[in-house]
Predict the structure.
Amino acid sequence: MRIFASLSIAALALASFTAASQTPLAPKARPAKATVALTPPMGWNSWNYFAERVSDKDIRSAADQLVSSGMRDAGYVYVNIDDTWEGERDASGVLHSNAKFPDMKALADYVHSKGLKIGIYSSPGPKTCGGYEGSYNHETQDAQLYASWGIDYLKYDACSFIQQVMEKKAPNDKAEQMRMMRAAYAKMDQALKATGRPIVYSFCQYGMDSVWEWGPSAGANLWRTTGDISPHWDRMYVILNEQAGLEKYAGPGHWNDPDMLEVGNGKLSLAENRLHFSMWAMLAAPLLAGNDLPDMKPEIKAILTNRDVIAIDQDPLGKQGSRAYSDGEVEVWTRHLAHGAMAIAVINAGDNRYSTHPFHLNLRKLGLTGPQTGKDLWTGKTVKLSDNEPLELASHDVLLVRINAPKAPGK
Ligand code: GLA
């Protein structure tokens, strides 16, 4: 469970990170990181749909579909290969891809030729979660290899590092284990930086050791805050709730990652897909689609390419939203946006709340006074919200409103 005890240390770490990131540097000396993930990364990742079945062909086809569906133009630029691309190391320790990925450089060139970027996956441990070759003791060599292929993004997944390195080397010393984890992530950061190539660095260690407190100073552009997502309402809702309180750690170049999107996967209803996408946008989460792009239904494409919702996620202020309050089975979240704008999301988490029990919105709890005019981002219509406004939401559905000129007390 999360421990918020060492907040002062976190504040110091964050302050020094912020100070460092504001230090003016000559363009050549500027770390590559300063140029990536200024807004949450957007793209597609192979894991949620293909898992270990993914091949070169699927990655090429995903790249093609990102272009033809209009997703690339809506902002989805990273095509990320997750676990199971790795082959064996040769006598010099150089890692080769396996038979499913015959030529990584050619694949990267193909993805780049579509105006997209390409991501890859590894582990600080000897093995990845799928049991493939990890980067343990080969960090520099692997980072150089990725750069030589033209890789733009690395997801670095703890996996076997926990049992085979941390727990073996420091069996009864949790503090030492966590120091080892931080060092392992920082080591790959140095290796990536040394390549001189701007590579988005994504930590995946499921939120251990309150990673949001130390991830940015270890080079993270994003860090997973939770265990794995799955295409089920219950799991998505648990993850959403785990994000409350983490908003202060996110900002341009360093984001909380509540895991990749399941929009269009499993048996999620349309309302659940809308809610999932809306809330990940409210959370300033990376938007990495994880569905079968060649088989995408029009209503799923409409969700993933809703430009108004994407604009909430990608808002240049980079301020993650937070839960303003909850009332029974309804939750109200707000997000402050650039130029004084605001987004409000109201969600019905109940399985069978019905319309004779409308929810009454309390604008004062959102720091607003008087009627507010905004845009409903799923219908595109203008809405007026008054204090105590009765709202009827279907089960697991969301009302997402953008208010460009919110009226607060004294305004
Ligand atoms: C872990 C990660 C997933 C995925 C798999 C691959 O479970 O959390 O996102 O990368 O490993 O093996």
Notes: The pocket of alpha-D-galactopyranose is lined by residues 47, 82-83, 128-130, 157, 204, 228 (CB under 6 Å). Confidence is low (pLDDT under 50) at residues 1-33. DSSP finds 13 helices and 18 strands in the chain. The longest strand covers residues 330-336.
